[in-house]
Every structure is written in C-alpha cells, then in structure tokens.
Amino acid sequence: MTELQKRLMEDQLNTELFQELLHQGVAYLREARQRHVYPTAEALEQLSVFDEPLPVHAAPAKTILHQLHQVGAPATVTSAGGRYFGFVTGGALPAGIGAKLLGTFWDQGTAMQVMSPIAAKLEAVVEKWLKQIFRLPDSTVAGFVTGSSAANLCGLAAGRFRLYQNLGWEVARKGLVNAPSLKIVTGREAHSTVLKVISLLGFGVDSITYVDTDDQGRLRPELLPEPDERTLLILQAGNVNSGSFDDFRAIAARAEKAGAWVHIDGAFGLWAAAAQKLSHLTNGIGFAHSWAVDGHKTLNTPYDCGIVLCRDPEALRGALHMQGGYLVTGAQRDGMFFTPDMSRRARILELWAVMKYLGQAGIDELVTTLHERACQFARGLAEVPGISILNDVVFNQVVVAADSDEMTERLLQGVQEQRVCWVGGSSWRGRRVIRISVCSWATTEEDVAVSVKSFEKAMRTVQTAQGR
Q1: If 0-12 CB within 10 Å is exposed, 13-18 middle and 19+ buried, where does residue 353 land?
Q2: pLDDT, mean of residues 380-394
Q3: 134-150 confidence digits (pLDDT tens)
Q4: pTM
Q5: Contacting residues for 434 by C-beta, under 8 A, at least 6 apart
Q6: Domains, the chain, ordered by start
C-alpha cells in the first residue's frame, strides 16, 4: 500500500471530517433565510484566495474543506432561501438533498443496469410515475439528463431520426449531407436552448420557420404553416418570460395527424399538468411525441436533474444508440440508451426521493403554491406607482417594467443592490423588463411581501432621480 493510499483510507473513514461537513451544510441552510440573497462585494473579493498555483505537495482534507466552506459559502447565491427569483431556479427539498448526499457516498455510474442495479430500478419506477403524473401514453420512455437543454437535444434527435426513417433515409449512418430537407417550425419566442439544439443537430438556425406569437408569447395557431411528414414542430409549455403555454390541443393534434413530429419544451411549465387548478394549461400535451422537463426547477430537486420523455422508444434509442464489445447489456433497463451520455451520476436518486416525499398531493400543492406566490407578487407590484405588470400571470412568471427602459434598468439595479431578493432582467416584446420567477418551495407570503417593499423602495429612488 502506498503512502497516498494510506492517507486516502484514513480520510475515507474519518467520521469527524464528514460530521463537520454535515454540520456546516445544515448551518448554511439554517442561515439561508437571514443571508443576503446575493454575495457582498467583500465576499466576492475574498475569492481571490483561490488564485494560487497547483500545490506541489498534498494538503490535509480538513484544511481544504474548511477553506472551501469559510470562503466559498459567503460567495454563494442563496437560491436555497425564499427570495431568489432569478433564471427559473428551484430550491432543493430536504429529501432530495439527503438522497444526493447518500448518492455521493455511493458514487454510482448509471450507463448500464450491471453498473448500478439500484439506479436502473429507480429509473424504471420514476419513469412510470412521470407517465402517470403527466398523463402520457403507456409507450413513453424517459431519459435522465443534466437539464432541459440536453432533454431538448434528445427529443429533437429522436424526431429527426423518426422523420428521416419515414422518408427512407438512415440519418445515423448517412448523416445530413444529401439528406432530404426537413421543416423546422417553432414560435418566435422559443427558448434559446432550442436554437442551440437545432444548430447542434446540424440543421442550422437559418432553417427555422418562426411563427409569430401573441401578446403573451404564445404561438398563433392560425399562422402555423401546414405541417406534413417532413415537419419538426417545437412548442412551449412555459414561456421563459411570461410563463404562457401554447395551445397544444389546437396545434399538436393537427400536426400529429399530418405526420409531423411534435416536441414540447416544458422545462418548468410541464409540471402544471400535476396541479388540478393549473392542468388546463397543458391540455393536449399527449398529442406530442417528445417532451423536455426539469426536476431542478418547479419540482425542486437539487441540481442537476433534467428529463426527456418520448412516446416512440425506437426513435429515442435509434437517435442515441451506441455499441461496443465491452458493454454488458441485458433485458433490464440500461439508461445509456435513452441519454447522450454513458457517464452519468445517479441523479435519479434525488428525483425518486422528492417524488416519493411529496406524492401526487404534495406535487400539486407545491406547483399551485408557486403560482399563488407569483399572483401575490403581481398584485403587490401593481400597487407600486410607476411599475407595470406586462403579462397574464398564468403560472409562476411575472414580467414587470417601469415607464422607460432606462428606468427599468435603474429599478433592477436598485433591487439587486439591496440584496433583499434577486431578480433578473430580460428583453421582451421590444422593451427591457424585469423577470420574476417564483420557483422555490421556501418562498413564503412574507418573502413576497418583503420583496415587494424592496421594489417599492428602489422605485422611489428611481423616481426621485428623475425629479418626479
């Protein structure tokens, strides 16, 4: 045994080391509600201590982890609290955090069932749960990926595979050179990850036919080009700004009948299907062929957790298939056939734990509460002079603006500088806006009320500077 191995084995069995880490983690969560949502300038300056050459000699694990906690924790964004409203970022449920910790100790690879029977089993179980809660066809399979970017890639790759196969072209073998042309159709407010995926799949963004949207960002069905067997149609469950949903029943059913492939980007919005009061927003999603959704947004699993769902298993496997003489596959579920990666951590542990912890009723309550908090936010801000609500708050998104782009930017800066809450800016329908995403289980009525007061204070400062 080498000296390094001796040292590693001692650290691996050092109960005190791991107990201290657990204590620090719990203390961080306990303090989350009192912390600034965004790091202070001093905390950010302290990060310079990490600017050092790679050490020649080893350092004690306890020293390394102590430094990481002492310097790193103050420089985190407190998305674990209830007042972080940026980028549709969910919180993390305690059961999910615990499952992730346990999974880190297990350190499972999940390419094949033989590598991790527990991960393969839970992937099969959660696949059934997802079909149930989203009310998807029995044939639907799931792949567990990093996020909706990867999920969109998988779903659209499956669509490309199926459409070309129907046209007699083996795209996996022949590629796109001399391939028949496909029609890529989506709304003008499609998420940027969709555009990235279209580029990665070799079509190029210039090949996209954009359909104009209404004042809420929904694709206008009457402007949709006539779909056919060469059409790859991408719809949206949850506009990244307004939170609006396309009319799936009117659009997807028509496209499916024509032989098109329909994909729904539902990163955060697909979970509306799980809430009784909001499920009408997702009426008709079953007409689609593939769906992308995140667990780490609305469902509040720890990062990272994305899911691709596809009702055509052959198409998904055909698009993502790989083989090798060293692979040990069998009749049971081998997750690598439903994702781009062989090397994947067992993120299914957190997803299973969170879904089992909440159950159907808990998921319904979680999703509904996020919507109610968003409505509370909109009502409160509507009472602040100088602030306008620009969207219909149908889900968890609130879009606000001041009288001019300049005032909106100053308002945003004022809110961020207070560090009471954190919101982000965006551009929507030709103007600068502030986008509020209510996405954490930890957001209370008090959190929203305090955040509204922060907006009100910042707005008064902006108006004073304008001489109003």
Answers
A1: buried
A2: 98
A3: 999 999 999 999 999 99
A4: 0.96
A5: 399, 400, 401, 408, 411, 412, 415, 423, 424, 425, 426
A6: 99-354 (3.40.640.10)
